[in-house]
Amino acid sequence: MVYDPEPARCSALDPELEQAVRINLGREQAEAQKIGLEILLMALEVQRRQALLAVVTLAPFETLPATTVVA
């Protein structure tokens, strides 16, 4: 018979490890939010270009300057 104990959650969890997990989670959430905002920005650009085409503006599309989103 082989007994493989499962590690239990202990109230004495290493605070540095717990903080590292929270930091990583925060980074992942910020990255997901950044991606969501970039998708929204692309959707708005599509709407802008469609509006220009609707009024038969056939001049080249002016590209918006690149912006950095700080989350």
What does the secondary structure layout of this molecule look like, with pairings?
Blueprint: H1 15-54
Describe the structure.
This protein is mainly alpha-helical and 71 residues long. It is elongated, with a radius of gyration of 24 Å. It has a domain at 14-59. It is 56% helix and 0% strand. The chain has one helix spanning 15-54. The model has no long low-confidence stretch (mean pLDDT 80). It contains 1 helix and no strands.
Please outline what is shown here.
This protein is an all-alpha fold and 71 residues long. 56% of the residues lie in helices and 0% in strands. It has 1 helix and no strands.
* CA-based shape: elongated
Low-confidence parts, pLDDT < 50 over ≥5 residues? none
Largest sheet: none
The mean pLDDT is 80
The percentage of residues in β strands lies in: under 5%
